[in-house]
Amino acid sequence: xxxxxxxxxxxxxxxxxxxxxxxxxxxxxxxxxxxxxxxxxxxxxxxxxxxxxxxxxxxxxxxxxxxxxxxxxxxxxxxxxxxxxxxxxxxxxxxxxxxxxxxxxxxxxxxxxxxxxxxxxxxxxxxxxxxxxxxxxxxxxxxxxxxxxxxxxxxxxxxxxxxxxxxxxxxxxxxxxxxxxxxxxxxxxxxxxxxxxxxxxxxxxxxxxxxxxxxxxxxxxxxxxxxxxxxxxxxxxxxxxxxxxxxxxxxxxxxxxxxxxxxxxxxxxxxxxxxxxxxxxxxxxxxxxxxxxxxxxxxxxxx
Length: 303
Description:
By secondary structure, this protein is α+β, with helices and mostly antiparallel strands. The protein has 11 helices and 12 strands. Strands 4-5-6-7-3-2-1-8-9-10-12-11 form a 12-stranded antiparallel β-sheet, with helices on both faces.
């Protein structure tokens, strides 16, 4: 992987773990297959979030700074990534991106030997890659082959696999053009102090061999990580194909939690997490939620 893409891809890896300006159900276009949203500013400003942020800063951001000299800790506040079936993958980086960092990224892109400067409505954008616009490709890896990016909007870096998607974002000043909340919308979880949101549809993910009957009957999944009185609240919702399947999965999860209650060798902190876990079913939607001490999460991911 080139050094330019070494800047982009740690952002994607961070998103699922880690928004005030959260996205909601009505914010995404029709055909959105997956989304990820992280509010690093919110994470840095809370007691619970700071412990998580410190780990990522040490393990991910500091290494990136050593490699390419760009400090995400001071220049990035929020990250939003999503992909839909028509226009492909997008990532929007919000923050005080300095002229120095912009010049470094352009220099890294130039080193790859395929950087092209273009204009649209008097705004400058760039193309890097094999010359193919990956409109409609859902995978984040599509950005490795061809990517369009721009610094034309204040406090934003926008990267897209498709040229049409980049132009659409420029038209809307970087705002995601949602389709409004309606039946069949992509499921999105929110809270007052969100650290991260992520979700996906299972349809159209390619030729995946679903060995499990449960997985074959899950249509959507959504995850939320948020602050709750100094603790980390985690919620997962699964939208199944029918109410019976949702109840069956809930019974399995409750059964597994009950079995672990008799495990004398379990770490007390993990046992406390299981004790705090709640499982609820409403029609086709299964909700699993728990509250965790941030120190426990840091210890788990550090191991």
